[in-house]
Structure to design on (73 residues):
């Protein structure tokens, strides 16, 4: 797993470093106008660990998570 940055050019994302593999799945976090997105080493490690959990199927998502919650009274 790697974290990289890029820019939208002609409606497509162009990354700043080595190209990604054709067909590779990516996650895009797009900051709002004037907003920055920076992580310190600890936060970046936590984000990468969470993404690995998702990739390996160890995390609950969406409706699966809601199904684990008790019914509202």
């Amino acid at each position: 797993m790697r974290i990289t940055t890029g820019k939208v050019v002609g409606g497509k994302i162009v990354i700043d470093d080595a190209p990604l593999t054709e067909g590779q799945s990516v996650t895009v976090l797009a900051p709002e106008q004037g907003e920055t997105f920076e992580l310190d080493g600890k936060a970046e490690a936590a984000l990468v660990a969470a993404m690995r959990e998702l990739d390996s199927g160890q995390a609950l998502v969406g409706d699966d998570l809601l199904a684990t919650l008790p019914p509202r009274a």
Observations:
- The beta strands are 6-9, 12-15.
- The first strand starts at residue 6 and ends at 9.
- Residues 6-67 form one domain.
- Residues 41-56 form the longest helix (16 residues).
